[in-house]
Predict the 3D structure of the following.
Amino acid sequence: MSFRLRVFLLTLVVAVVATGATAWLSLRLSAQQIAHTQQEATRHVADIAETVRAYARRHGTWAGVSDRVALLAADNKQRIRLVNLYGQVTVDTDTLANRAARPVVSPPTLINPRPALALDATAAERAGGKIDAVILDELTRYRRSVVYAGCVTDNGGDPPPVSPDAYGVPFPALNTEQNPDCTRRADDTQQYARDADLAAVSGCHAASNHISCLIQAFGDRVDTFAPEPLQLFLGAVDDDPVTLLGRPLAASIGAVLVLSVIGTALVARHMARPLRSLTAASRRLAAGHLDTRVRTTGRDEVGELSRSFNRMAAALEGAETAQRRLLAGVAHELRTPMSNVLGYLEALQDGVVPASRELFGSLHEEVLLQRRILDDLQDLTLAESGHLAYRRTDFDLADLVEAGRVAHLAVAEAGRVRLTAEATGPLPVHGDQDRLRQVLGNLVTNALRYTDPGGAVLLRAFPAGGRAILEVRDTGCGIAAEDLPFVFQRFWRADPARDRETGGSGLGLTIARQIVLDHAGTIDVTSTPGRGSTFRVTFPLQVDV
Ligand code: ADP
C-alpha cells in the first residue's frame, strides 16, 4: 500500500472514529441531560403544582401569583408557565425574566383550586333532610371566604390560611371579620348569588342520583366565583436546545479532541518511525559507517526510499572499497619501478655499479613506466567519473583502421609480425577520433606485444546488424579461459613480471573499455591460448549501411 494511501486511510480512520465518538458521546450525554431534566421536572411538578394550588385556595384569586411563581422557579431551577384552559397565559417566568416565551413541550399538569364537594351517602345520611341547607351553607361560606381573601389580596394584604372542612371545602382558619371593607364586599356578593344557589340545589330534588347531582350543582356554582383551573408547564431553566446540549457537546468535543490528538500522535509516530530510522542511518552513514543499512519493509514510498538509501549506501561502500583497492594497486604498481630506480641510485652512490649508458637507459625506462601509469590513471579516473572530455565528430571508422595500421607498421616490422588491415567502408560513426584511435592503438600494441615473430595481426572494420565492428585479431600467445573475465580490470596482467618488462601499465584495456562505453559501444574478447586472441569493439552506425 502506498505511503500516501496509508496516510489517507489512517487519517480517515482517526476522522471516522472521532466523528463517531463525538456523535455517540453527544447522543449519550444529551440523553442523560434530557433524562435528568425530565427527572427534575417530575420531581418538582407535584410540589410546584401543590404550592400554586394552595396559593389560589388561600388567596381566592390568581392575582399576585406571579411573585410566588417567580420564587418557585428560582428555588426549583425550573421555567414555569401557567395557562388557563382557553390558552391565556397567567404567568410565564420567561416573560417575567424579560425574554420571549419559549414554546412548551412537556405535558401540562392541571391545577384546579376549586374544591370538589366531599359528599357521600354517609354524610348525606348524617345531614338528614337538611342536606340542601348544608350545601347552600357551604356555598355561601365558601363564596364569602373566596371573595374576602381575593379582596384582601387586592388590597395588598395577606389572607389567612385555609383548611378544608368536613365536606372538603376550604375555609379560613382565622376570623374573616378583621377587614371590614372586604367583609362587606363578601357579604354583598351573596345577595346576588343566593337565589341561583337555591335554584341549583333545588334542581336536584327530581334527580335520580341526588348526591351526585348535588355535587355537580355545587361544582357549577363554585365555577362562577372560584379561581379558574390552570395548566402548569415546566421546563429546564434554560431549555434552549443549543444551550441544553451545549455542555454535553462541549464535553464530548473535548473528549474527542483529546482522543483525536492521541490517535493522530500515535499514527504520526507509527508513520514517522521508518523516517526516523532513515534519519539515524543517514547520520551514521555521514559519520563514515558505510556498512549502515536500514530495514526495508513494504512497497510504499517509504519502502522505496529505504531501498534507495540501501542502494546508495552500497554504492558508497563499493566506491570506497574500489578507491581503497585502486590506491593499493597504484602503490603496488609504483613500488616496483621505484624500488628499481632507488636500488640503482643507491648502487651508483655506493659505487657498486659503474655509471653506464645502459644503466641510465634502464633508469629512464623505469621512470617512463611510472609516468605512463600516472598518465593512464589520470585518464581512467577522468573517464570513470565521466569527466573525460570528448570532441565528437562524424568520421569513417575504415579510415581509422587504416591509420592505425600505418601507425604501428614500424613496430610490427621490428617485431617481425605481419600487420594487415581490411575495411569494408564507409562506416560512418560519431565520436572522438583521438580517443578511439587511443583504443585501437592500445589493442594493436597489445596484439603486437603478445605475438611472437612470424605471427600476424589483422585489423578489420565492417558493418553488422546496424553497428560498426572493429576487430583486432592476433596469432599470439592468447589468454587462458579463466583469465578472460579479468582482462578489462585495472592493473590486471596475465604475467605481471613479463608485462612490466614490456612497459604495460595494466590500465590500457580498462581505459579502452570506458571510452568505448562512453561511445555507446561494446568491447569483448575471445581467445584460444597458444593460437591467438580477438578483441571486438562495436559502435552504433550513424546511417544504415
Ligand atoms: P598492459 O598495458 O599491461 O598491456 P592492458 O590492460 O592493455 O595492460 O592488458 C592487460 C593484460 O591483458 C595484459 O597484461 C595481458 O596479460 C593481457 N592481454 C591484453 N591483450 C592481449 C593479447 N592480445 N594477447 C594476450 N594477452 C593480452
